[in-house]
Protein backbone atom coordinates (compact mmCIF):
# COMPACT_ATOMS: atom_id res chain seq x y z
CA UNK A 1 0.00 0.00 0.00
CA UNK A 2 1.15 3.54 -0.70
CA UNK A 3 0.73 6.70 1.30
CA UNK A 4 1.75 10.13 0.06
CA UNK A 5 2.56 12.82 2.65
CA UNK A 6 2.38 16.33 1.22
CA UNK A 7 5.03 17.96 3.39
CA UNK A 8 8.26 16.99 5.10
CA UNK A 9 7.51 16.03 8.71
CA UNK A 10 9.95 14.44 11.18
CA UNK A 11 10.62 10.80 10.42
CA UNK A 12 9.80 9.66 13.98
CA UNK A 13 6.13 10.46 13.35
CA UNK A 14 6.03 8.48 10.11
CA UNK A 15 7.63 5.41 11.63
CA UNK A 16 4.31 3.70 12.63
CA UNK A 17 3.06 4.15 9.07
CA UNK A 18 6.12 2.62 7.43
CA UNK A 19 5.21 -0.77 8.95
CA UNK A 20 1.99 -0.78 6.93
CA UNK A 21 2.70 1.13 3.75
CA UNK A 22 5.25 2.45 1.35
CA UNK A 23 5.46 6.08 2.39
CA UNK A 24 6.49 8.85 0.04
CA UNK A 25 7.05 12.32 1.42
CA UNK A 26 7.06 15.58 -0.56
CA UNK A 27 10.51 16.87 0.33
CA UNK A 28 9.65 20.53 1.07
CA UNK A 29 8.88 21.75 4.58
CA UNK A 30 6.93 24.89 3.68
CA UNK A 31 5.97 24.64 0.01
CA UNK A 32 3.09 22.37 -1.08
CA UNK A 33 3.43 19.97 -4.01
CA UNK A 34 2.06 21.48 -7.24
CA UNK A 35 -1.50 20.23 -7.90
CA UNK A 36 -0.40 18.02 -10.82
CA UNK A 37 2.18 16.31 -8.58
CA UNK A 38 -0.46 15.71 -5.90
CA UNK A 39 -2.79 14.31 -8.54
CA UNK A 40 -0.14 11.94 -9.87
CA UNK A 41 0.80 10.76 -6.39
CA UNK A 42 -2.86 10.28 -5.44
CA UNK A 43 -3.49 8.11 -8.52
CA UNK A 44 -1.97 5.01 -6.97
CA UNK A 45 -2.12 5.87 -3.27
CA UNK A 46 -4.31 4.21 -0.64
CA UNK A 47 -3.70 7.08 1.76
CA UNK A 48 -2.89 10.79 1.69
CA UNK A 49 -1.70 12.94 4.56
CA UNK A 50 -2.56 16.48 3.49
CA UNK A 51 -2.25 20.00 4.80
CA UNK A 52 -4.78 22.79 4.66
CA UNK A 53 -2.93 24.16 1.63
CA UNK A 54 -3.80 21.15 -0.55
CA UNK A 55 -7.02 21.12 -2.52
CA UNK A 56 -8.49 17.64 -2.41
CA UNK A 57 -11.41 18.20 -4.75
CA UNK A 58 -13.88 16.00 -6.58
CA UNK A 59 -11.72 15.67 -9.67
CA UNK A 60 -8.61 14.69 -7.70
CA UNK A 61 -10.66 12.10 -5.80
CA UNK A 62 -12.08 10.75 -9.07
CA UNK A 63 -8.58 10.14 -10.38
CA UNK A 64 -7.53 8.26 -7.24
CA UNK A 65 -9.34 4.89 -7.49
CA UNK A 66 -7.41 3.14 -4.69
CA UNK A 67 -7.70 5.94 -2.17
CA UNK A 68 -9.15 4.90 1.20
CA UNK A 69 -8.22 7.73 3.52
CA UNK A 70 -7.34 11.43 3.44
CA UNK A 71 -5.88 12.51 6.78
CA UNK A 72 -5.81 16.30 6.99
CA UNK A 73 -3.18 17.61 9.38
CA UNK A 74 -5.46 20.39 10.65
CA UNK A 75 -8.69 20.89 12.50
CA UNK A 76 -10.14 22.80 9.54
CA UNK A 77 -10.85 20.72 6.44
CA UNK A 78 -12.45 23.11 4.01
CA UNK A 79 -9.65 22.18 1.60
CA UNK A 80 -11.19 18.70 1.22
CA UNK A 81 -14.41 18.02 -0.69
CA UNK A 82 -15.85 15.85 2.06
CA UNK A 83 -19.11 15.11 0.23
CA UNK A 84 -17.21 13.81 -2.80
CA UNK A 85 -14.93 11.74 -0.55
CA UNK A 86 -17.90 10.24 1.34
CA UNK A 87 -19.60 9.32 -1.95
CA UNK A 88 -16.50 7.47 -3.05
CA UNK A 89 -16.11 5.70 0.29
CA UNK A 90 -12.95 7.64 1.13
CA UNK A 91 -12.60 8.36 4.85
CA UNK A 92 -11.55 11.91 5.75
CA UNK A 93 -9.95 12.57 9.11
CA UNK A 94 -8.84 15.75 10.88
CA UNK A 95 -6.99 16.71 14.07
CA UNK A 96 -9.43 18.20 16.58
CA UNK A 97 -8.87 18.44 20.36
CA UNK A 98 -5.07 18.11 20.32
CA UNK A 99 -4.67 21.71 19.10
CA UNK A 100 -7.41 23.37 21.13
CA UNK A 101 -5.29 24.81 23.94
CA UNK A 102 -2.40 25.99 21.74
CA UNK A 103 -4.78 27.71 19.36
CA UNK A 104 -6.71 29.35 22.18
CA UNK A 105 -3.40 30.64 23.58
CA UNK A 106 -2.63 32.23 20.25
CA UNK A 107 -6.05 33.85 20.06
CA UNK A 108 -5.44 35.42 23.46
CA UNK A 109 -2.03 36.57 22.27
CA UNK A 110 -3.78 38.35 19.38
CA UNK A 111 -6.41 39.84 21.69
CA UNK A 112 -3.80 41.09 24.15
CA UNK A 113 -1.40 42.20 21.43
CA UNK A 114 -4.10 44.13 19.57
CA UNK A 115 -5.55 45.68 22.74
CA UNK A 116 -2.10 46.85 23.91
CA UNK A 117 -0.78 47.86 20.46
CA UNK A 118 2.17 45.60 20.95
CA UNK A 119 3.35 45.74 17.34
CA UNK A 120 3.91 49.51 17.56
CA UNK A 121 5.51 49.14 20.97
CA UNK A 122 7.97 46.51 19.74
CA UNK A 123 8.84 48.63 16.71
CA UNK A 124 9.59 51.58 19.01
CA UNK A 125 12.26 49.57 20.81
CA UNK A 126 13.58 47.69 17.78
CA UNK A 127 13.91 50.83 15.67
CA UNK A 128 15.49 52.73 18.58
CA UNK A 129 12.72 55.34 18.61
CA UNK A 130 11.83 54.87 22.30
CA UNK A 131 12.57 58.21 24.01
CA UNK A 132 11.27 57.46 27.49
CA UNK A 133 8.19 56.80 29.64
CA UNK A 134 5.28 58.77 28.20
CA UNK A 135 2.03 59.11 30.15
CA UNK A 136 -0.31 59.40 27.18
CA UNK A 137 1.46 57.90 24.18
CA UNK A 138 0.78 54.51 22.62
CA UNK A 139 -2.14 53.74 24.90
CA UNK A 140 -4.08 50.53 24.54
CA UNK A 141 -7.40 49.57 26.08
CA UNK A 142 -8.37 47.47 29.10
CA UNK A 143 -9.91 44.05 28.69
CA UNK A 144 -11.39 43.67 32.20
CA UNK A 145 -15.08 44.50 32.22
CA UNK A 146 -15.31 44.38 28.41
CA UNK A 147 -17.36 41.97 26.32
CA UNK A 148 -15.68 39.30 24.26
CA UNK A 149 -17.80 38.07 21.36
CA UNK A 150 -17.05 34.66 19.89
CA UNK A 151 -18.39 33.75 16.48
CA UNK A 152 -17.94 29.97 16.36
CA UNK A 153 -18.21 28.58 19.87
CA UNK A 154 -16.65 25.16 19.41
CA UNK A 155 -13.80 23.52 21.28
CA UNK A 156 -11.39 26.38 20.60
CA UNK A 157 -14.06 29.01 21.29
CA UNK A 158 -14.76 27.50 24.70
CA UNK A 159 -11.02 27.43 25.50
CA UNK A 160 -10.78 31.10 24.46
CA UNK A 161 -13.80 31.95 26.60
CA UNK A 162 -12.24 30.22 29.60
CA UNK A 163 -9.09 32.30 29.23
CA UNK A 164 -11.03 35.52 28.65
CA UNK A 165 -13.08 34.94 31.81
CA UNK A 166 -9.86 34.92 33.79
CA UNK A 167 -9.13 38.37 32.32
CA UNK A 168 -12.45 39.60 33.70
CA UNK A 169 -14.30 39.66 30.39
CA UNK A 170 -17.97 38.88 29.80
CA UNK A 171 -18.66 36.40 27.02
CA UNK A 172 -21.30 36.40 24.31
CA UNK A 173 -21.30 34.05 21.34
CA UNK A 174 -23.06 33.18 18.16
CA UNK A 175 -23.36 29.81 16.42
CA UNK A 176 -26.04 28.48 14.11
CA UNK A 177 -27.62 27.04 17.25
CA UNK A 178 -27.03 27.68 20.97
CA UNK A 179 -24.74 25.14 22.62
CA UNK A 180 -26.46 23.29 25.40
CA UNK A 181 -23.44 21.59 26.93
CA UNK A 182 -22.46 22.41 30.52
CA UNK A 183 -18.96 23.68 29.56
CA UNK A 184 -20.43 26.68 27.79
CA UNK A 185 -23.09 27.23 30.43
CA UNK A 186 -20.48 27.14 33.21
CA UNK A 187 -18.53 29.88 31.42
CA UNK A 188 -21.57 32.12 31.65
CA UNK A 189 -21.36 32.60 27.87
CA UNK A 190 -24.56 34.11 26.54
CA UNK A 191 -26.00 33.09 23.16
CA UNK A 192 -26.89 36.07 20.97
CA UNK A 193 -27.96 36.60 17.35
CA UNK A 194 -25.36 37.58 14.76
CA UNK A 195 -26.45 41.25 14.70
CA UNK A 196 -26.34 41.30 18.53
CA UNK A 197 -22.88 39.76 18.46
CA UNK A 198 -21.67 42.58 16.22
CA UNK A 199 -23.34 45.23 18.35
CA UNK A 200 -22.27 43.92 21.77
CA UNK A 201 -18.65 42.86 21.26
CA UNK A 202 -15.79 45.06 22.42
CA UNK A 203 -13.54 42.32 21.11
CA UNK A 204 -14.93 40.07 18.38
CA UNK A 205 -13.13 36.80 17.68
CA UNK A 206 -13.91 34.95 14.44
CA UNK A 207 -13.50 31.21 15.00
CA UNK A 208 -16.12 29.84 12.65
CA UNK A 209 -14.99 27.23 10.07
CA UNK A 210 -14.91 28.38 6.45
CA UNK A 211 -17.81 27.69 4.14
CA UNK A 212 -18.25 29.32 0.72
CA UNK A 213 -21.48 31.03 1.82
CA UNK A 214 -19.53 32.77 4.60
CA UNK A 215 -17.14 34.53 2.22
CA UNK A 216 -16.88 38.18 3.34
CA UNK A 217 -19.72 37.63 5.82
CA UNK A 218 -18.05 40.35 7.83
CA UNK A 219 -17.65 43.24 5.41
CA UNK A 220 -17.92 47.02 5.57
CA UNK A 221 -21.57 46.95 6.64
CA UNK A 222 -21.02 44.47 9.47
CA UNK A 223 -17.97 46.40 10.68
CA UNK A 224 -20.06 49.58 10.72
CA UNK A 225 -22.54 47.69 12.92
CA UNK A 226 -19.76 47.00 15.42
CA UNK A 227 -19.02 49.38 18.29
CA UNK A 228 -16.73 52.26 17.52
CA UNK A 229 -13.41 51.35 19.11
CA UNK A 230 -13.94 47.58 18.88
CA UNK A 231 -11.20 45.06 18.20
CA UNK A 232 -11.55 42.33 15.57
CA UNK A 233 -9.57 39.08 15.71
CA UNK A 234 -9.55 36.56 12.84
CA UNK A 235 -8.22 33.13 13.75
CA UNK A 236 -10.11 30.30 12.00
CA UNK A 237 -9.88 30.75 8.23
CA UNK A 238 -9.29 33.68 5.96
CA UNK A 239 -11.93 34.89 3.54
CA UNK A 240 -14.74 35.09 6.10
CA UNK A 241 -13.76 38.68 6.87
CA UNK A 242 -13.24 41.23 4.08
CA UNK A 243 -9.66 42.28 4.75
CA UNK A 244 -9.90 45.49 2.70
CA UNK A 245 -12.92 46.57 4.77
CA UNK A 246 -10.96 45.92 7.99
CA UNK A 247 -8.01 47.97 6.69
CA UNK A 248 -10.39 50.81 5.87
CA UNK A 249 -12.05 50.68 9.32
CA UNK A 250 -8.62 50.73 10.98
CA UNK A 251 -7.63 53.74 8.88
CA UNK A 252 -10.76 55.69 9.88
CA UNK A 253 -10.35 54.62 13.50
CA UNK A 254 -13.76 52.93 13.68
CA UNK A 255 -11.93 49.76 14.70
CA UNK A 256 -9.43 50.36 17.48
CA UNK A 257 -7.22 47.46 16.39
CA UNK A 258 -7.28 44.07 14.67
CA UNK A 259 -5.37 40.82 14.83
CA UNK A 260 -5.09 38.19 12.13
CA UNK A 261 -3.56 34.72 12.08
CA UNK A 262 -5.29 33.62 8.86
CA UNK A 263 -5.92 35.32 5.53
CA UNK A 264 -7.99 34.99 2.40
CA UNK A 265 -4.77 34.39 0.45
CA UNK A 266 -1.81 32.75 2.18
CA UNK A 267 0.98 33.63 2.34
CA UNK A 268 -0.25 37.23 2.66
CA UNK A 269 0.33 39.02 -0.66
CA UNK A 270 2.78 41.89 -0.64
CA UNK A 271 0.08 44.34 -1.75
CA UNK A 272 -2.48 43.32 0.89
CA UNK A 273 -4.18 46.44 2.30
CA UNK A 274 -3.71 44.92 5.76
CA UNK A 275 0.03 45.50 5.55
CA UNK A 276 -0.48 49.26 5.30
CA UNK A 277 -3.23 49.43 7.93
CA UNK A 278 -2.52 50.96 11.35
CA UNK A 279 -2.88 48.98 14.60
CA UNK A 280 -3.01 45.57 13.04
CA UNK A 281 -1.16 42.56 14.35
CA UNK A 282 -0.43 40.07 11.58
CA UNK A 283 0.77 36.54 12.30
CA UNK A 284 1.61 33.84 9.72
CA UNK A 285 -1.06 31.18 10.49
CA UNK A 286 0.65 29.76 13.58
CA UNK A 287 -2.38 28.98 15.76
CA UNK A 288 -1.34 25.40 16.50
CA UNK A 289 2.41 25.88 16.04
CA UNK A 290 3.87 24.54 19.27
CA UNK A 291 6.22 21.58 19.51
CA UNK A 292 3.82 19.54 21.62
CA UNK A 293 0.76 20.30 19.56
CA UNK A 294 2.27 19.72 16.13
CA UNK A 295 3.70 16.42 17.40
CA UNK A 296 0.27 15.40 18.66
CA UNK A 297 -1.33 16.41 15.36
CA UNK A 298 1.21 14.39 13.36
CA UNK A 299 0.76 11.32 15.58
CA UNK A 300 -3.01 11.56 15.31
CA UNK A 301 -3.01 11.97 11.51
CA UNK A 302 -0.63 9.03 11.10
CA UNK A 303 -2.64 6.87 13.48
CA UNK A 304 -5.82 7.66 11.57
CA UNK A 305 -4.21 6.46 8.33
CA UNK A 306 -2.81 3.31 9.94
CA UNK A 307 -6.19 2.45 11.37
CA UNK A 308 -8.07 2.87 8.11
CA UNK A 309 -5.48 0.86 6.20
CA UNK A 310 -5.85 -1.90 8.79
CA UNK A 311 -9.63 -1.83 8.44
CA UNK A 312 -10.22 -0.20 11.82
CA UNK A 313 -12.20 2.96 12.60
CA UNK A 314 -9.98 6.06 12.74
CA UNK A 315 -9.84 8.10 15.93
CA UNK A 316 -11.04 11.36 14.44
CA UNK A 317 -13.07 11.09 11.24
CA UNK A 318 -14.72 14.34 10.15
CA UNK A 319 -18.29 14.29 11.47
CA UNK A 320 -19.84 14.25 7.99
CA UNK A 321 -18.13 10.92 7.24
CA UNK A 322 -18.16 9.37 10.70
CA UNK A 323 -20.60 6.61 9.74
CA UNK A 324 -18.52 5.66 6.77
CA UNK A 325 -15.48 5.44 9.03
CA UNK A 326 -17.30 3.03 11.32
CA UNK A 327 -17.50 5.57 14.12
CA UNK A 328 -20.54 7.70 14.86
O1 LIG B 1 -5.58 26.27 10.66
C1 LIG B 1 -5.20 25.25 11.16
C2 LIG B 1 -6.02 24.13 11.37
O2 LIG B 1 -7.14 24.07 10.81
O3 LIG B 1 -5.60 23.20 12.08
Automatic annotation (TrEMBL):
InterPro entries documented for this protein: D-isomer_2-hydroxyacid_DH, D-isomer_2_OHA_DH_cat_dom, D-isomer_DH_NAD-bd, NAD(P)-bd_dom_sf
Keywords: NAD, Oxidoreductase
CDD domains linked: GDH
Gene Ontology cellular component list: cytosol
Record Gene3D superfamilies: NAD(P)-binding Rossmann-like Domain
Residue intervals of the D-isomer specific 2-hydroxyacid dehydrogenase catalytic domain: 3-318
GO molecular function per UniProt: glyoxylate reductase (NADPH) activity; hydroxypyruvate reductase [NAD(P)H] activity; NAD binding
D-isomer specific 2-hydroxyacid dehydrogenase NAD-binding domain mapped to chain residues: 109-287
Family of this protein: Belongs to the D-isomer specific 2-hydroxyacid dehydrogenase family.
Name assigned to this protein: Glyoxylate reductase
Organism: Brockia lithotrophica
